[in-house]
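User: Some background: our group keeps a shared notebook of sequences we're curious about, and every so often someone picks one and asks for a predicted structure to add to the entry. Today it's my turn. The entry only has the sequence so far, pasted here. Could you supply the structure so I can complete it?
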Amino acid sequence: MGEPGSHEFTVRDSTTVYSGAILALRLDRVEMPGGRAAEREVVSKHGAVAVVARDDRGRIALVNQYRHPVGRRLLELPAGLLDGGPEESPVEAAQRELAEEADLAAGSWRTLVDLVSSAGFCDEATRVFLAEDLRAVASAPRENEEADLQVRWLSLDDAVAAAFSGEIVNASAVAGILAAAEAVRSGVELRAPDAPWTDRPRRFVGRQ
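Assistant: Of course. Here's the predicted structure to add to the notebook entry:
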């Protein structure tokens, strides 16, 4: 056994046991330190994007949307999957989602934070953008859960308070709101919208 931090976790074999529209489940046998192999269940998904859309009054656009797995509506950032095809970049996906969910477009885009949601069992990763210089666009047709979607505007301070109070619990929303508040407070230089994204998931798309 080598020094801690030096082991190569080689996949000995991999089997896909389920493949659906938005996720796949596979079983990997991975070589562990000491030579034994352990089975790991891995959920593979599209990547995702989310948008902190901030207007010239310092408010951000949030969507109140029903989420069936938790059985209630959640207050979230405009967001969606990277499922627009191989030619669509993450920022283009974010622009599409902002228009579809909040009827907004933005003249300024920057990368705010990158998230790996549940690294213990899933390769899902989300890039959160800060969008400013907002303008309204024509309302998009919506169906299913999105037909019931409501857009709410909160000041950034009120959104931070809602995250700390437990009113906002969606992971990308909490991370994006707190990161945006710190970016505004500190003036930190944010990355370009097309900055490299190390953990962008590609395996789910590649299996199709």
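Suggested note for the entry: Strands lie at 11-19, 23-31, 37-45, 48-53, 59-67, 72-76, 79-81, 104-116, 125-136, 150-155. The chain has a mean pLDDT of 94.
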